[in-house]
């Protein structure tokens, strides 16, 4: 491990107070950051991508866990100065990109296998995840911290109240495994909710054929009126009864009872009906 000073000392020296506008909550517990880093598996090959490293607690843990290369994306200039100090302590192993993560195509960064390991800013976490899912094949795995309620949705099974659009899209492309909860008191400042670290591993192939854009359309229509039967909620897509029949579903079903493969069948039916069946 490096001879870098304690995180609290570094934060005080750089005036890195957490900013609500950036969704910042700093994690100082070295046991927790180490546990997150170890959950990412063998880091001695490929690239680890970290989003919003802040004071660098997780960055240090990843490097101490043997990461060959870490690419940290940070938009806060105050945190970039801290990252520069970490890079100097681990020569040639840390690259800092001063940018907004929403504007970076993580699927093109570094060498494969790529892993994303991050304590995500809560205000953009699901937007980032959906962007990465569009390029899921580019990543070996993701170990991400979200609000607990988000992980509950990611891993929710059909028939549960948490099952929704995010559940379907994520499980269609990846296997999701909640790993452990993190108490709000572990952060500075404490968020209002419990957090959960989840492992998200892209599948070798999606659960069933479908186009991403059409899956988004179908799930948006179905869950936009989740208490209604499919024959009502899917009217925005065209002839709902015909689409439901083509997908082999029951028109009296509600979206929360339809398995992922059922939504894939609906997406293919929509494509076929529009004459653009290009799966």
From TrEMBL:
PROSITE patterns: RRNA_A_DIMETH, SAM_RNA_A_N6_MT
Reaction(s) this enzyme catalyzes, per UniProt: adenosine(1518)/adenosine(1519) in 16S rRNA + 4 S-adenosyl-L-methionine = N(6)-dimethyladenosine(1518)/N(6)-dimethyladenosine(1519) in 16S rRNA + 4 S-adenosyl-L-homocysteine + 4 H(+)
One Pfam family hit: RrnaAD
CDD domains: AdoMet_MTases
Keyword match NADP: no
Domain Ribosomal RNA adenine methylase transferase N-terminal: 32-204
Organism superkingdom: Bacteria
The protein's Enzyme Commission number: 2.1.1.182
InterPro entries linked: KsgA/Erm, rRNA_Ade_diMease-like_C, rRNA_Ade_Mease_Trfase_CS, rRNA_Ade_methylase_Trfase_N, rRNA_adenine_dimethylase, SAM-dependent_MTases_sf
GO molecular function: 16S rRNA (adenine(1518)-N(6)/adenine(1519)-N(6))-dimethyltransferase activity; RNA binding
SMART domains: rADc
Binding site for S-adenosyl-L-methionine: 25, 27, 52, 74, 100, 119
GO cellular component, one term: cytosol
Transmembrane residue ranges: none
Family classification: Belongs to the class I-like SAM-binding methyltransferase superfamily. rRNA adenine N(6)-methyltransferase family. RsmA subfamily.
Purpose: Specifically dimethylates two adjacent adenosines (A1518 and A1519) in the loop of a conserved hairpin near the 3'-end of 16S rRNA in the 30S particle. May play a critical role in biogenesis of 30S subunits.
NCBIfam families: ksgA
Identification of the protein by name: Ribosomal RNA small subunit methyltransferase A
